[in-house]
Amino acid sequence: MLTFSNIIIVSAAVTTALISGLFYAWSCSVIPGLSKVSDYTYLESMQQINRAILNPVFFMSFIGAALLLPLCTYIQYSPTFNARFWLLLSATIIYLTGTFGVTAFGNVPLNDMLDQFPLTTASLQDIARMRARFEQPWVYLHTIRTVAGVITLVLVIVACLCPAPATAPIASLARS
């Protein structure tokens, strides 16, 4: 049935899937590929990729999931036990801390540090030091946000499979 509640939960699932898929694809292809290139090429590539990803399509899914997950969780609240609500609450917490939070407070500061690095005028030693300072922490944080994103997606999918409670006061308003 096409209701506001269902539109919101499906939209949350889609935006979560898009971000989880992006991070998963990076883990499977970009990170292993870049690990094989020279220090200069690695830093130059990461600078360009980090600049290119700041676009409306990325923000729509990345921030969209951060907004839609709490909204669909709120809509599913019920004073009685409701598996859908608890799954969505768990998904929201994991996404906001493990994906959104790790990105905002971990990966983005590293990206900003790298963006300020004067690659074209740096010595080979400085370039090697910057890669050593950047790559391992960035990949570690990326792995955390990827795993959190996949867990979030699984929880949202399972929540979609659970019946919506008939007693959820907010959900019943959203059904009309």
TrEMBL record:
Superkingdom: Bacteria
Record's keyword annotation contains Lipid metabolism: no
Keywords, comma-separated and alphabetical: Membrane, Transmembrane, Transmembrane helix
TM annotation in the entry: 6-31, 52-77, 83-105, 139-166
Pfam families noted in UniProt: Anthrone_oxy
Matches recorded under InterPro entries: Anthrone_oxy
Protein name listed in UniProt: DUF1772 domain-containing protein
